[in-house]
Amino acid sequence: MRAVRRPECEMRAVLPATMEAVEGFFADFRLRNRSLTTRAHAFGAELLLREALNNALVHGCRQDPSRRIRCVLRLGDGRLTIAVEDDGVGFDWRAAAGRPTDDGKTSGRGMEILRTYSTRVRFNSRGNAVTIWKRFRREEPMYE
């Protein structure tokens, strides 16, 4: 029987839908993440978390401080799991997943970011919750 290892970093929060709250959570993760991963891994982990939190804030909760964003994050043993849920109505992630990225726009790149930087992504049927998994490969280069 194989022993299950506990994550080196686990964070849980219920945040008001404000930029200050999201940035505070992100800053706390950044401090912990930098001590647990390589620079190359840290970039991908931070990008995935920022994308999930900003989408919940801007699109899900429409920056309404009376709404909440719930986040659970686990990092350790070469794996990252991010689960984010918001109080919003959700979105049609199936349609968004098939839509090509428009290079001329400053938004609309979220699905491409998730596809590029994660190992696996799952949305709930309503589209107001996402779970993102990232497995870090040992051979990923570290760029200085």
Tell the overall outline.
globular
Oligomer: single chain
Kindly state the number of beta strands: 5
Can you identify the CATH class?
Answer: Alpha Beta
Distance between the termini: 40 Å
What does this molecule look like?
The protein has 144 residues and is an alpha+beta fold. It has one domain (9-98, 111-135): 2-Layer Sandwich (Heat Shock Protein 90). The protein contains four helices and five strands; from the N terminus they run E-H-H-E-E-H-H-E-E. Strands 1-2-3-5-4 form a five-stranded antiparallel β-sheet, with helices on one face. Strand 4 and strand 5 (129-135) form a beta hairpin.
Any descriptors?
disordered C terminus, 144 residues, 4 helices, Heat Shock Protein 90, 5 strands, alpha+beta
Could you give the topology of this structure?
Blueprint: E1 9-16, H1 19-36, H2 39-60, E2 68-76, E3 79-86, H3 93-98, H4 110-117, E4 120-123, E5 129-135
Antiparallel strand pairs: 1-2, 2-3, 3-5, 4-5
Helix pairs in contact: 1-2, 2-4
What's a quick, concise take on this entry?
The chain is an alpha+beta fold. The protein has four helices and five strands, in the order E-H-H-E-E-H-H-E-E. It has one domain: Histidine kinase-like ATPase, C-terminal domain (Heat Shock Protein 90).
